[in-house]
Amino acid sequence: MPRKPRAPKRRIEGSYPIDTGTATIVALPERDGAYLLEVNSVPSTQLVIDAPRVLDFDYMRWIATALRCWIPEDAAPDVVHLGGAGCALPRFVADVWPRSHNLVAELDGALGRLVRDVFDIPPPPRVDIVAVEARKLTHALSPGATDAIIRDVFFGNTTPAALSAPGFYRAASRALRPGGLYLANVGDRAELSSVHAELTAASSSFTHVAAFVPRDFTYGNTVVAASDRPLTALVAALGELGLRCVGVDC
Length: 250
What we know:
It contains seven helices and twelve strands. Strand 5, helix 2 (about 90-95) and strand 6 (about 100-105) form a beta-alpha-beta unit. The longest helix is centred in the N-terminal third of the chain and has 13 residues, at about 60-70. The chain has helices at about 60-70, 90-95, 110-120, 135-140, 165-175, 195-205, 230-240; strands at about 15-20, 20-25, 35-40, 40-50, 80, 100-105, 125-130, 145-150, 175-190, 210-215, 220-225, 245. The chain has a single domain, classed as 3-Layer(aba) Sandwich (Rossmann fold), CATH 3.40.50. The strands form two sheets. The chain has an eight-stranded mixed sheet with strand order 7-6-5-8-9-11-10-12, sandwiched between helices. A four-stranded antiparallel sheet has the order 1-2-3-4, covered by helices on one side. It is an alpha/beta fold.
């Protein structure tokens, strides 16, 4: 019997209007199904549609490593993602932990709808994208509602001040279950002023806090972690990736 011909692959490259401006999807030549999402000309997410465990941005791989050394393989975690963009990390979590529930706060509702349409996002409740401001969602979470919170929110190249203030960290700590993990993507420069400010704010609500920074760091992404549980496992796992630990838990 002759093989049924494959349906032609949908073409998704192009520019799309969103609530905050323009989203652009660029096909990447190095791999079939690989795309870069730009939001208002700023690279936001890189992913491979049929391979949710492939994470091309370094900081996403660091966060993924932290999650995998923290959450048991057979768990069904609830994870809150503050900042959605292309939903690379929600897709990763949904694939590694098939029984997980991922709640994604994406302020730009049109962007959230676009991403769900073109990037093969698992349906709710595995990945639920809501159009809401990240701080508002965090404060609205019930006590002990989630196992992990991942913050990846930027306005330009900085995190909004409301998402790095002590009050925000109090709300995040309250929303986490005992042993829960908070992770944040923090952009910084060599002097690490933003990292140290985040560590100070996080210390007001969490017993254990640390930041993870590439060696010979001059500018770019770092990861801040916080929990009521010691971060020993994270220090070891991220150290193997070449990151140095900054903070009292190192």
